[in-house]
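$ run holo --ligand "CU-O-CU linkage" --emit tokens
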Amino acid sequence: MRLRRPAAVAAVSLFVAAGLAACGVSTTSVTEPEFTNELAVPPLADSHVEDGVRTFDLSAQEGRSEFAGQDGSTRTWGFDGDFLGPTLRADRGEEIAVDVDNALPEATSVHWHGMHLPAEMDGGPHQMIEPGQTWTPHWQIDQAAATLWYHPHPHGQTEDHVYRGLAGMFIVEDDASRKAELPHEYGVDDLPLIVQDKSFDGDGELELTHDGAEPGMLGDTVMVNGTIGGVQKVTTEKVRLRLLNGSTARTYAFEFPDRPMTLIAGDGGFLDEPAQVDRLRLAPGERAEVVVDFSPGEIVRMRSAEVDLGGVAVPSTMGGSDSFDVVEFRAADDLAASPEPAWSPSRQAEEDAMDEADAVKTRKFELSEREINGERMDMSRIDEVVHVGDTEVWEVRSSQPIPHSFHVHDVQFEVLDIDGEAPPVPMSGRKDTIYLEPNRVYRLLMRFEDYTDPHLPYMYHCHMLLHEDEGMMGQFVVIDPGQEDEVGVAVGHEH
Ligand code: C2O
Ligand code: CU
Ligand code: CU
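-- output --
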């Protein structure tokens, strides 16, 4: 059964709109910090190779962090440190493993967002790691070069665990990215930017409150890689920014005041060609890579402008009206030359390609209340059963004036069209997460290439983490034709 309450929703948005007009709220609710702090850059994770397997170590742990503007230190969580985690990097074709140990006082999981891998390695809510335990997923990297990320996924607590600081980047390289004419020196002209908003209570501790606000908590303090008011030194003419919206609910519209950015990649890898964009909307969970030009000696800030969250239907109180500076760049007086962004298709480009004509099935997903197709997430229910090797079209629609970002595990999809029209450039490459403007139909093309398991599902869900935690999530399994009878969640596999 589908629950729809159009009357109630309309009433709510009218009320919000009226309230806004009445008090004339137009200013941003994000505090502008002083840009005086050296931007933290997550270190590259160490790994060791043995018997052809590259193994990383990650430890989820408690810590204390110093944040600008707070007296004393703040309790945070991090991987191998106090806050956030190191950047993992591996090549297509490599066998990798990660020893993830949980040094936290409660169970968590670590999900490889955007990664194509077996369901039992996915790190979703079925792969919980108890305190004191180590989980060692392993898989072969088999997808195009891309900026992916990792974060906990414990059902009902993802928002809390990510908000406390558990998140990191995972960079996949391939022959195309290795040979590309692009800035590629990590931390110098190839910069990870993990953008998050937070709030602090009177004691300087992280505060997570919703009070029924949609689409979740919008923090009044924005940080990049854990630095509030971050400043990055620029030493090259061009810098590649790997932008990750690691926020729980806030959608950004990144821009520079006086220059376009060259968009080179979306969630799942390079676009067909570089594209100039003035502004880039990124919803929670989404990534993009841009290359930005700098002039010698200049100081310039990247900001987040007012965001179009899908027309007048979405109240601007949901984060749309905020605009604020995000990070400052200070260019040296002499800048080293950088190449004009260019790349060639990877060796596997042809085998990666998908064709709508191959689609054997269309599935529809409607997001409403905290439900997908009228149901809230149930760990013991498999919602969709997919045959391995199949290409499918997923038709996704949000039917309420609330922001949602839709994410599918295991695959990188292509946005075929939005209400029948070609997607805008930032949605033209492979994606695993997209912002859903209300009442529009997004048709997504995806192929479930390998890894069957009738008992362990992958997830699809809203990546606004309050929504996810409250049940806006479903589960699909990938099986061999003929395994239908076996489909069901095996409770014994839970740990
Ligand atoms: Cu980034 Cu299912 O999540
Ligand atoms: Cu994911
Ligand atoms: Cu949502």
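-- notes --
Residues 175 and 476 are 32 Å apart (CA to CA).
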